[in-house]
Structures are given as structure tokens and as C-alpha cells.
Amino acid sequence: MNTKAFFKLSYGVYIVSANYENKDGGCVINTLAQVTSSPARLSIALNKNNETLRLIEGAGSFSAVVLSEDVDMELIKTFGFQSGRDAEKFEQASYERDLNGNPYPTEGIAARFSCKVTDRLDVDTHVILIGEVTEADIPSDSQVLTYADYHSKKKGTTPKNAPSYQESQTKGFRCSVCGYILEADELPEDFICPVCGKDASYFEKID
Ligand SMILES: Cc1cc2nc3c(=O)[nH]c(=O)nc-3n(C[C@H](O)[C@H](O)[C@H](O)COP(=O)(O)O)c2cc1C
To answer: Any idea which UniProt keywords this protein has (predicted)?
Structure first.
């Protein structure tokens, strides 16, 4: 199997979020798609380890924003490279709430949706949720961030929890948090990951 074929799939970059039992949370995903038009429904795929899945299933609803190409990488670091079990992500972002009471980031977004969860499919490591759209809005005329541009222009990486994650063939040192790879023979002691900001102790040698 040529696993590079998976790199030919196109996606956007999104943040899905919810509030459950007074806890706000959310995470970056690339696996959002429209599945029907009438009624309008979206699908999302979430890793079972993600706190966001617990919150969305508890709430029975979720908010989803489409990130714009001018999004601050800090927002992606906040929502894509740490768990809501360890951090209050929405304290680090400006946000509003939808009619279901779910928070959503308001900066660096090109569109937003609110959904009620209607269906669930267990796919081993992940759960696919179907959400019926109850609100949709275009808060700015920004261009959307594609998954390809996230990698090529913003130098972003994909952590292991994402369904599209692939092991790298490159030699060097890999950040155990975000997957960033430093191609070098030696890892400087004061090295800081340019993607997620972790120090050299989070890096592991790959060869
Ligand atoms: C570009 C990108 C795409 C991602 N796509 C997904 C995805 O589709 N599904 C998923 O479960 N996690 C995905 N992730 C990983 C989660 O955002 C990440 O594991 C997050 O820390 C989970 O936080 P939580 O535990 O608060 O839910 C992605 C991360 C990035 C940076």
C-alpha cells in the first residue's frame, strides 16, 4: 500500500467544541464534512482519548468553526496540542456561545456552525458523530485555511490523535507533543519546538 496516497486527500482545519457540566472544551480537527443537505448534517471524527469527545457526547451538541488562512497559530497550538484535561483552552481565546450554550472561538474563523448530535459510529480508535445543523453563519469574508496550506505555508504538524497522522520517514528529533521534526544530528539543549513551544526534553531521536 502506498500510504502517500492519503496525503492526496483534501481537508480544511476546524475547531469543534462544547460545554458539559459547566466545563468548556474543544479541539482542532481536519475531519469535518457535510454529509446531507436537507436537513443539513455534518460529520466529525474524534479520537476516543480526546476530552472534546466526552464533552460533546455529554452535551449532545457541538459548535464547529472553520479556521481562516489568517488564523493565529497560537489558536491551533492551544486547541490542537494540549488536552482540555490539562488546560482551560477557552481562557486562552476570545469566544462567544451559541444557542446551545457551547463556546466557539471568534477570531481567525471564516464560518461557524452549531449542531445537535443525531448519530454515532464506533470506529475502534475514533468515534464518528453526525450533527444536524441548527445554526450557520459567516462572521468574516476571510479565506479558509486548507489542511495543505496549514502544512506547507504555516509549517503546521499533525499529532497522533488525528486520523490523518502518519509516522515520518525522516531522521532527526521528533517532538513527542506535536510531531514536529528537527532534521539534525544533534539536538541543542535550549531547543524550543517552533510549533507547540515545548522544550528539548520533549524530543525523541528518530532514525
Ligand atoms: C491539524 C490537526 C488536525 C487534527 N485532526 C484531528 C481529528 O480529525 N480528530 C481528532 O480526534 N483529533 C485531531 N487532532 C488532534 C486533537 O486536536 C488533539 O489531540 C487535541 O489535543 C485534543 O484535545 P482534547 O483532549 O481537549 O479534546 C488534530 C490536531 C491538529 C493540529
So the answer is: Oxidoreductase
Which residues surround ligand 1 with Cβ inside 6 Å?
Answer: 13, 25, 27-31, 45-47, 50-52, 76, 80-84, 150, 156, 158-159, 161-163
Question: Looking at the domain assignment, is residue 5 inside a domain?
Answer: no
Q: What would the pLDDT profile of 36-75 be if each residue is shown by its tens digit?
A: 999 999 999 999 999 999 999 999 999 999 999 999 999 9
pTM (predicted TM-score)? 0.89
Give bridge partners of residue 123 from the DSSP assignment.
Answer: 126
Instruction: State whether 82 and 118 are in the same domain.
Output: yes
Asked whether the ipTM of the predicted complex exceeds the cut of 0.95, the reply is yes
Same domain, 124 and 200: no
On the CB side of 155, CA atoms within 13 Å amount to 8
